[in-house]
Amino acid sequence: MRLLSHRGHHRHHIENTRAAFDAALNAGFAGLELDLRSLGDGTVVVFHDEDLWRLAGSRRLLHELDYSAAHQLFPQLLSLYEFVALYGRAALEINFEIKDGLATLQAALPLMRQCRNAIVSSFERDVVVEARSQGMRTAALFEDKAQLLAAPLGADFERVHLSCQLLPLFCGCAGLFTSQAVYFFTVNDPTQARYISQLEGVAGFFTDNSELLDLQRKPRARRRLRKVS
After folding, report:
1. Residue 27: CB partners within 8 Å, gap ≥ 6?
2. 215 to each of 18, 56, 108, 197, how far by Cα in Å?
3. Helices (DSSP H) in 97-189: which residue ranges?
4. Which among 120, 181, 198, 219 is least surrounded, fewest beta carbons within 10 Å?
């Protein structure tokens, strides 16, 4: 069972920052998940929200700012260039979630390709399809049942990342996922984590909780699921 640190180890550090990523690696996570957005000057940065309010108390939108202005408002901000220089050659999986569309994907591709083990994920199918066409490993993100059942689960991506809300659907319809590796997000409850870790067909999950890392180290007894035709 592979555990990836969701935005770094941000229970004790600010999410998507060097401190959070360093703490996640020191804790022993198999990989990192992070978010990419573009600033107004085209710089791709590691940041989740479209504005700075939650982390820096500013209502300014990222696409209105250049790197200098954004960094002044939020000094811990990492550019993608800085992130890749720090972690790109490390022996871990790096999951880049594209938050704001194709332009950010295209700008990020040259740097993501420098990483030893990169995967591109997005809720936007056109982003996933384009990343796949550019030779990147890809994962499609799904939050709700309607979105998942409407999607063609084909060769456009090699992994499926499912919200924990979709766990009952997965358990009842495991046959939907015979072609892709399945990961769940964001799994923080120990009871739920132990249950997911035993499910046949689940390769791993994203978490904020380093106390679950024992599940990454232990061999697991598989719980077989009902197949659907």
Report:
1. 5, 9, 210, 213
2. 25, 34, 32, 7
3. 102-112, 125-133, 145-150, 167-172
4. 219
Query: What is the reported pLDDT for 219?
Result: 66
- Name the amino acid, one letter, at 148: L
158: domain range?
2-217
pTM more than 0.90: yes
Q: Are 8 and 222 in contact (CB under 8 A)?
A: no
Digit-coded pLDDT (tens) for 57-77: 999 999 999 999 999 999 999
In a domain, 100, yes or no: yes
Burial letters 163-186, b for 16+ CB under 10 A, else e: bbebbebbeebbebbeebbbbbbe
* Token pair belonging to 166: 């979709």
Assign residue 201 the CATH number of its domain.
3.20.20.190
